[in-house]
Hints:
By secondary structure, this protein is of the alpha+beta class. The protein has two domains: 7-124, no CATH class; 129-181, no CATH class. Helices cover 18% and strands 38% of the residues. It has helices spanning 36-47, 109-124, 171-178, and strands spanning 7-9, 16-18, 22-27, 30-35, 59-62, 68-78, 81-90, 93-104, 129-132, 136-139, 148-150, 161-164, 167-170. The strands form five sheets. The chain has a four-stranded antiparallel beta sheet with strand order 5-6-7-8, with helices on both faces. It has a three-stranded antiparallel beta sheet with strand order 11-12-13. The protein has a two-stranded antiparallel sheet with strand order 1-2. Strand 9 and strand 10 form a beta hairpin. The longest helix has 16 residues, at 109-124. The chain is globular.
Amino acid sequence: MKNNQRKEPCSNCGIEVPSYDGVNLVSGNTSQFLCSNCYNQNISKTFGFDFEQVSFHPITIEDYDGAPHTFHFQNRLLGDRVYLQALEIKEGEPEGYRFSKDGYVEDDLFGLFKKLVERIRRELARRHIEPDHLTRYSITDDNVVRGHINWDDETEGQVPLLVIDGKELSWYELGRMLMAYEGFHFKLEIFDETEER
């Protein structure tokens, strides 16, 4: 069971934040955890620009089947670019859907946020898998599967844990779904999480 109280104190400001809302920095034998706010301040000072940290409240959006999904937002600077991420949080940990958009530091963060929310709504309005009595899930009639690739603790990262329609599936489970298409051809396309295809 996941610990919904897992927080870490920021090495810079001392504020405790969820571990997913910060960055672990390692230099030699020294490591420190910085909350997103302190991390962004350090990056903006290093690159010599002003960056105003903006926080967005979590929002809940229903999927194709009417199930609610609550997203928490974080923004992070990567040089002169800003990366806005929406994480579905379950029991205090990121699990399920994950979306992101990126732009430049001078871009309007609220505009970037609006685009990200629109993308979430589009993605949740479609379904790639459906319940199946034999294999737990089967691929829908559109014959397209989209999702993201995660680390699988059970296999120590030897094969991925896949998140499709916000549901965690093993590589084996996807393989079982694909066996319904024995003899067919397929195309596997990999793209950055900020892209939408």
